[in-house]
Amino acid sequence: RSPFESVLKTNYVPSEEECRNIEGYLETLRIGLSRLEDQARIVHEATEEKIGPDLELEELKLFIAAHSALLSPARRLPDDLLREIFLNCLPPNHNATFSPADSPVLLTHVSHRWRDVAFSTPRLWSTLHIPLLSKFLEYSSNANRMSTIKKWMVRSGSVPLSLSFGT
C-alpha cells in the first residue's frame, strides 16, 4: 500500500517536499522492480521456456507509472505559462467552436485546475463560430443554445469578441 494512495490517478499537484518523498518511494519501487525482473530472467533462462507476462511485474510497473505521473512537470506549470499554451491551442484559421473535441472547450475537460485556468482566460473565449445548421442546433433547445452563447460571451470578459456564423 502506497503512502500516496489518496492522490494516485488524480490531478493533485504535490509540494516540493512531497515530490522528494515520492522520488524516494519510487527509488524503492524501482529497486524492487529490478529484482523481480532479474528473478524472471533467471527463471526464463533456467527453464528455457517462453513464459507469458508476469502479472506481478506488470502490476508493479503500473504502480510505478501512477507514482511517476505525480511528478509530471506539466502539473507544476505556472498559470500564466499554462494560459499561453492554451492560447496557442486555439484554431489558427477560424473562430473557436462549441465542439468538446476542440479548444477551448476541450481544455476545460482535462482537470479542475485546467478548467479554472481556461475559464479565467478571457482571450481564450474571444472568438466564437455559431453554427446555423449542425448537431448543436439539432439536439439542443433555443434556451440551451442561448445559455451556451451567453456563457461564452461572459467568459470573454472585456476582450473584443469575434463572431462568425455558418455551417
If you had to describe this structure to a student in words, what would you say it looks like?
The chain is mainly α and 167 residues long. 49% of the residues lie in helices and 6% in strands. It is built from six helices and two strands, in the order ααααβααβ. The protein has a two-stranded parallel sheet. Helix 1 packs antiparallel against helix 2. The termini are far apart. The model has no long low-confidence stretch (mean pLDDT 89).
Question: Which helices and strands appear, and what pairs or packs with what?
Answer:
Layout: H1 16-47, H2 55-69, H3 79-87, H4 112-119, E1 127-131, H5 135-138, H6 142-155, E2 162-166
Parallel strand pairs: 1-2
Helix pairs in contact: 1-2
Keywords:
167 residues; mainly alpha; two-stranded parallel sheet
What's this entry about, in short?
This protein is mainly α and 167 residues long. The chain has six helices and two strands, in the order ααααβααβ.
